[in-house]
Protein: MTX1 protein
Amino acid sequence: QLYREARECLTLLSQRLGSQKFFFGDSPASLDALVFSRLAPLLKAKLPNGKLQQHLKSLRNLCNYCTSILSLYFPWDGGEGHSSLTLRPWHEAEEDPHKRRKQLLSVLVGLAAMLGYAFLSGIISIQRGSVGPAGQQPIAMEEEEEEE
Structure:
């Protein structure tokens, strides 16, 4: 029954779209975004059971609608032969050549800010003490006494 209702929904959408470019004329509306977000994955994904996908593919105007939106708004993924751009692997597609350096600098600035706050607020303090056995400085943590 679910497939039957979905097929009926697709058929009604196809009838409503007719030969128009979008559901409400020549410019897209929020309904177009909603319908496309449901149809495109159904049209493009590899599904274990393709009954509904086959029905969608039989509705040429809905297929053309999806292809048109893909080409118009997603030219890098527009489907078969519509793309003038080629996708590169993620590690080659970095737009900023100094991205890694900026990330490292951000981490270092954040670390310095946290350490500065910890020292200034008294969370961490450095105390000079006597040198312990074998030339090592003893590790001791003293609790601060509250003055009243």
